Amino acid sequence: MKQTILKLLLFINSILLIAYMGLTAHADFHLNTRGVIPLFLSSLLLIDVTYVSSCNIRENKTISLFCGLLALESWYILLAASGNSITNTIFFALSPVIWCFSIKFILMFLFQNSGYKYQKLINLCLTGTCIFALIGVLVSSKIFFLLYFIQFMASWLCFIFTVIYHRKRVAFVFKSEWRHIIFSLIAVIVLFLTYYFSTMRVPEHLSNFGVYIPILLFWVSIHGIILKEQNSLPLSAVFSNRQLTLLIFSGVIIFSLIAIILDGGYSLLFIMLDALFAFLYVCNIALDFNFKKGHNKIIKESKYHVALQQLQREEQLNLEFANFLHDDILQDLLSVKNMMKKADRPEVQKIITETLDNMNTYIREQMQDYHPTLLPKLTIKENYQNLLDGISQSFPNRNICVSFDCSDSLFLVEPYNIFVYRLLKELVTNIYKHSTGEKAWITLTQDNGIIILSVSDNGTVDADVLSSADRLKHRGLAMITERVNDMDGSVTISNNHPHGICVQTILPMKGDVSYQHFVSR
């Protein structure tokens, strides 16, 4: 429901922006170059908002933020060409807001909305300087420019510090997505050079163009990455791709002819095209709502319909399983436990209470196995440390000293962070259950896209004996080996000197898989 409201707000924003375009173009349909370029870019971003938002079937928060940012930038570009005092005030107010949200969005995308070191401090700095800059708009232009300069420098310092501190993470993103980034850079350079040489004789043809280049580069780069797995629209359940292309092409031709007949120029054409895509957008919103509420009367195996059905099955399964454990198991167990406090025989009460406590712990462990909870506000190391503490509390009779060596700046993108979580839990649990040792050493590193997890102890088990043991007796380790091999990794079991064993898992972290999982979750 929240996403539906957000889409409706974006639709209202489109209507308001189209209305503003009509008011500003009413006095002069034949805009000069300085007026056409902002109108064209603003229309382009507005159209893209409708497309990106419609494709966001899984309601990804990062993509939603991207749509909101594009909407703000479309206003920014259009207001940059205005000379009105009121619009200038709004234009100045948009500058710090867009800058703040742009930095936040890039960081959110780089870290895939997961926690990282100094995240709270950086968000506080970005938000605080943005608020002060907005206050400066109400005071005077000099105060605003001073505060905006402070925000600009502080934001850059925060961004550069974060990139340097988490340079391995950033390097992984560029290594995985360098084709999209290079393509975007080349496309923007070609477009700029084409515009520059074709308008050399036009006075002030580069006026305020410095604003457009970074916005265009940002738009093309991020757009190509986050939408590479989003290739369907709600309207694709009604029309095929060819029919949608024909529909849009026909609309462009018809509106172009109307603009020529009415002698309205580019401004009228852009306004009508924006109106066309706004209409298609509201149709997508209505269809999306009907599909998700089960009101659809169209039975068709479209890409959107299939993807939506799969998503609904996954969510329904997760919801039913979680409700079953919570309502039918845990609540009953807690109720029985409370009633047993009134039992007449203390020894019976103690046995039943201990049994219920063990069952409660076991069920919660099963819930965590099916859907591990990694808190987004914590780093990878902090989440894994919580896991190790939880395992230790599950075995109060075992006093094992666990050493966990992991960098604070380590990053593991989805789904690898959850997969390593499961590996770590299985291997450490095996030590508590089967090892006779009193110490365990855990090392987790990630370098150049290679994840290395080493778990060793000082028990009495021999590596050769464990490797040749019956797989049925060591199903957990056998399952780990099979899953790692399926992901092009390897598991090595060796002796840990002077005694004990060491299980080392080497796993390649592929960027394309991680971003596909990130967008599709």
From TrEMBL:
A biological process term (GO) from this entry: phosphorelay signal transduction system
Transmembrane segments: 5-23, 35-53, 65-83, 89-109, 121-139, 145-166, 178-197, 209-227, 239-262, 268-287
Key words, A-Z: Kinase, Membrane, Transferase, Transmembrane, Transmembrane helix, Two-component regulatory system
Keyword Protein biosynthesis: no
Record-linked Gene3D superfamilies: Histidine kinase-like ATPase, C-terminal domain (3.30.565.10)
Entry's Gene Ontology molecular function annotations: kinase activity
Domain Histidine kinase/HSP90-like ATPase, chain residue ranges per copy: 419-509
InterPro entries xref list: HATPase_C_sf, HATPase_dom, Sensor_HK_TwoCompSys
PANTHER family, sorted: NITRATE/NITRITE SENSOR PROTEIN NARX-RELATED (PTHR24421), SENSOR HISTIDINE KINASE COMP (PTHR24421:SF60)
Protein name: Histidine kinase/HSP90-like ATPase domain-containing protein
Organism whose genome encodes this protein: Roseburia inulinivorans
Lineage of source species: Bacteria, Bacillati, Bacillota, Clostridia, Lachnospirales
